[in-house]
Write a structure and sequence with these properties.
Layout: H1 5-16, H2 21-37, H3 55-89, H4 95-104, H5 110-117, H6 121-141
Helix pairs in contact: 1-6, 2-3, 3-6, 4-6, 5-6
Length: about 150
């Protein structure tokens, strides 16, 4: 099975953001909620008509922003569950788990990993690809990425 470039890149990006995504999503949600509370209601017209001030539109935009931030937090939590499952499949004492740990937790380069593990770049790349492929499959099972139509 060949993984599309789009899915591979999204999965790798999520792995790189693994330890900050939930906190960033929580901060985004808090800011969106704070912004929503500061919107003033549109003034009421005693004749029942609106004045066309657009304040209702601002409230609607703020509500959409809150809903989007909530969705991002749900996604970050779902990805965290995928990462935990991946850690059980590839603990740090496996080659793939060690490469993933070095890359995505410690931020090391492939060259650094080659020196530490005493292997060539091709071996590191192969272990990285297996790690990312399994992560992408877990994410697809969780409904976080779509594989298939439109992929190359």
């Amino acid at each position: 099975m060949i993984l599309s470039k789009r899915v591979y890149q999204e999965t790798e990006r999520r792995l790189q953001e693994r330890y900050t995504a939930i906190e960033q999503a929580r901060e985004l949600l808090a800011a969106a909620r704070a912004g929503a509370y500061t919107v003033k209601a549109a003034p009421m017209d005693p004749n029942g008509g609106g004045r066309g001030t657009g304040r209702g539109d601002a409230l609607e935009r703020k509500a959409i922003t809150v809903a989007e931030a909530e969705a991002e937090l749900r996604a970050a939590l779902a990805w965290d569950d995928v990462f935990r499952r991946l850690d059980r499949i590839f603990p740090p004492d496996t080659k793939e788990g060690r490469v993933g740990w070095y890359l995505y937790q410690n931020g090391l380069t492939q060259a650094d990993i080659c020196r530490i593990m005493g292997c060539d770049r091709q071996t590191v790349r192969r272990n990285k690809d297996v790690y990312i492929l399994n992560c992408a499959l877990l994410a697809a099972m969780a409904g976080l990425v779509k594989m298939g139509e439109g992929d190359e």
